[in-house]
Amino acid sequence: MGSNMAEAHPVGFQWVMEAKARGAKVLHIDPRFTRTSALADKHVPLRAGSDIAFLGGVINHILSNDLDFREYVRAYTNASFLVGEEFVDTEDLDGLFSGYDPETGTYDTSTWQYENGFPEDSVESERHREQSAGEQHGSGGPKLESGTGIATDQTLEHPRCVFQILKRHFSRYTPEMVERICGVSREDFLEVCRAWTSASGREHTAALVYSVGWTQHSMGAQYIRAGAIIQLLLGNIGRPGGGVLALRGHASIQGSTDIPTLYNLLPGYLPMPDARHADKRDYVESIRGTHQKGYWHNADDYIVSLLKEYWGEAATEENDYRFDYLPRIDGDHGTYRTVMDMIDGKVFGYFLLGQNPAVGSAHGRLQRLGMANLDWLVVRDLTMIESAEFWRNAPEIETGEITAEQCRTEVFFFPAASHVEKEGTFTQTQRMLQWRDRALEPRGDQRSELWFIYHLGRILRRKLATSTDERDRPLLDLAWDYRTEGDGEFPEPSADDVLRRINGVDLTTGELLDSYQQLTSDGTTAAGCWIYSGVYAGGVNHARNRTARTEQDETALEWGWAWPANRRVLYNRASADPQGRPWSERKKLVWWDAERGEWTGHDVPDFPKTTPPEFEPEYGEAGPGALAGDDPFIMQADGKAWLFAPSGVVDGPLPTHYEPHESPMPNLLYGQQGSPARKVYGREDNPSNPAPPEGGGDVFPFVFTAARLTEHHTAGGMSRQLAYLSELQPALFVEVSPQLAAERGLENLDWAHVVTSRAAVDARVLVTERMRPLRLDGRVVHQVWMPYHWGPSGKVDGDVVNDLLGVVLDPNTMIQESKVATCDIRPGRRPRGCELLEYLAEYRRRAGVTVETGTHVVTAHTTASDAAATSDTTAPGSTGSHTTAQGTTDREEDA
Amino acid sequence: MGVSDWIRSWPVYRQLTGADRLGRGDAAASPQSREREPRTADADRVTASVCPYCAVGCSQNVYVGSDDGGERVLQIEGNPDSPISRGRLCPKGSASKQLVTGDHREERVLYRAPYGTEWQELDLPTALDMLADRVLDARRKGWQDTDADGKPLRRTQGIASLGGATLDNEENYLIKKLFTALGAVQIENQARI
Ligand code: SF4
């Protein structure tokens, strides 16, 4: 679901085909019939943006028919844990959970806690969202004060146990509802349910694959949570042939999350410090509970080792390892916020390092207007991309909004070295690091980013060498002594040396570390990214392991290196039953070897090696030693997989169907229309198309969605310049159904233009039955699909599809909702120049779009005090009053 | 060539009488095609790499040779040893030779002055030096010592960066490290998108 794997990850898809050849059934649930659907056993189209309704239906089907893998669920998930009495579900609050604050549009998660669990440290919820707190748990769960001593009911019958809460929460997600919301027939839905639930139990598993078709929504994290809940209920996590597999779209996008170039993270998913963290102790306490289980309890070891790598000798115990050198965040500093700040004149310089936001980010116009209002812009790329030349080829030149002679931004273009002209590691989609050898030297001024950043840092340090300003100390004290290769003033820094320091070193012996378990908080180890510790175990670069697949078993542990500790299946302790025996012979991966007293198997066991299956920790114990023998989820604070998330997800402990920010449909399940915690920005330059209960939505009656083609790559900078690829996919097109074509008078291969309140975009029409009109709740809804790879540069050019989108974000990840919006489509080409601006203004006028449209996020018919859900809520005088559009708040600070 | 030689050199005859009954191998060869060599034959060396497009991580063999213009990539092939890709590459991976050798690649630093209408060339050390001055200036202009409550922030909001998903881990590591030491926090990449 949410993935067109055959198209976007074609070589990976060979394994799906391999599985199909061996008898696996392949189901593709996605709005459009694609290359993946063509190879699947069954394609089920659904309305873009309705996936949680569908998945909730599957959960309901599992729970109401007792189809869960009970032994797995009881032992390995938090199904039996009791949730505190104060928790109130969406069932009772018309689509809101307890703890909602309509003023800030955020949740206080304190009522979602387990019974007997200590209350969560009250981290102010708004800031939690602003810092994309959900995403900070990329390598493990959020904190709990205690991992032991949580009240449970092993019969799973207590009304407040997670299992029963789940049952109630999803009870209204019936096949009829799925049909009305998603447009999926009852028969198709039940066929999927039957196939999915049959791949469960000791002998069978199912794998779930998703891509950005799930993440790029205003509740994307909850889509994934919903998928994960199904996989957990069916016992499909930690087992061979199971899992929830995120297919990522760039060679090292996994690596750039692990070793983040992200505002809210430090390497290894350590959060960026917040202004409230007075010192390192405060910071560490905010990451982990004093009594929580698992490896995140050792967070102090990870941060101290990072600080030692950053500041070397200058970081000592006496100075708190220079924790004070880290800049602090205190809100949203994400890329979309930053672009708006550029327009508002608050940002002066911008680096674009192999990225082309003028085409590739949502709301291209906003991106380009931001770039046009800087002191300077640096673009590093292989070729000339739109983001480097916005001052002469942006669509805004034609409309007169950008004029080169009046654009003050100074632009530096630095040509980059390609992947064969430098060495280093990419981390692919399954967390595997693969080293590339350098094939040859780049030409002219082409250089690696390693070279560029290393020498920029060196020059900056030289320029500040005599500074006495306290502000410059972090730069001057920085450990910037990486080994270099070659002579002269500008030698190439050694990627190998950087990888060694990422892996980590024992500072007392100078030896490379073998594992993150060797890290300490006493300043004797330095490691740049704790989860990558072990890539250089034994002094060998394991990312460079290249034993041929024919010379090893199918787990292929000798090819590359996967974090953590070269484990290929995460949480693989769950591939064995609670007693430590494989669930079945054919689904065997790791198991307990009683004779040798250790875990063993085909994969590297993801569990403390010698903790036996029957081990029970003492009450109040903490860290890895507190993991019971049947706690497979070793990065979770309680050792269990979370069906219900008492913390860490900022928009609800359970997935709930809300309509997308822009939708032609009212929410049929609750009064709450869209996600109540989504991040909206009401600005003149970021209008939204109206959605119910707002009027005017019929001006943009169609559902818009966009995706990739095999033959191009994202914003096109690496594909539209290539003759081979340009020839294969020469032009932008828009797919519409024959019915929509008839309705709007669109002719195959003729021009049409797609319109939103932000932009109008030209494309060739492709009339195809791949797009199927959906019958929803008694009406027909059409969907429109476009690939998004074109822009004004390159061998083949076209309008920028991302210009159609506005900026509204998932509060967990600060990722934009770009997989669904509403639009209109009309035959012929769009108006040009000033006429285009008038044309769009007229659309907005007709739809009644103002700066407030879409910003009144609360539509639930409930009272604010209900939502706050203190145990003694009586809310005198407010019974029956509605928190309506007028009663809520505009959450854009600058509006 | 005698008549019988001539008949024997006829592909259909060879297909009917030889081992290559399907006519997909030797029977179909001509003197011309016999003389052809794969473009990898001239390679001086083969190095192991990874496809730079999507995150499947297909393994590549890069064939490098040289001519008067210096070393050149002759071909990029899928590496059959890889348990991920088994030697396969999709259209993008297969086109990556063109990606690295095509004439679309810029070789020189280019500079567009404020209000300028054209690019001009700049030498690399000068550009880096100019940039360093601008980084310090933007950092200063956006600097924040403390928040409204007097809590230390020690940061600048004057500098932002976007990019990393196409870069190496080692590169991302240095980017984050340098910007963090400068106090820049708006450091982002495609993973946010
Ligand atoms: S060859 Fe295709 S599938 Fe393989 S990594 Fe490259 S882009 Fe992805």
Automatic annotation (TrEMBL), chain A:
It is found in: Cell envelope. It holds the Pfam family Molydop_binding. Residues 1-384 form the Molybdopterin oxidoreductase domain. Residues 108-151, 656-697, 862-895 are annotated as: Disordered. PANTHER family: FORMATE DEHYDROGENASE-O MAJOR SUBUNIT, TUNGSTEN-CONTAINING FORMYLMETHANOFURAN DEHYDROGENASE 2 SUBUNIT B. It is an enzyme of class 1 (oxidoreductase). This is Formate dehydrogenase major subunit. Keywords: 4Fe-4S, Iron, Iron-sulfur, Metal-binding, Oxidoreductase. It comes from Prauserella isguenensis. The keyword Nucleotidyltransferase does not apply. Its cofactor is [4Fe-4S] cluster. GO terms for biological process: anaerobic respiration. GO terms for cellular component: cell envelope. Transmembrane segments: none annotated. Residues 862-881 have a biased composition (Low complexity). NCBIfam families: formate_DH_Act (NF041513). Belongs to the prokaryotic molybdopterin-containing oxidoreductase family. InterPro entries: Asp_de-COase-like_dom_sf, Formate_DH_Act, MoPterin_dinucl-bd_dom, Mopterin_OxRdtase. The lineage of its organism: Bacteria, Bacillati, Actinomycetota, Actinomycetes, Pseudonocardiales. One of its GO terms (molecular function) is molybdopterin cofactor binding. Its EC number is 1.17.1.9. Residues 702-820 form the Molybdopterin dinucleotide-binding domain.
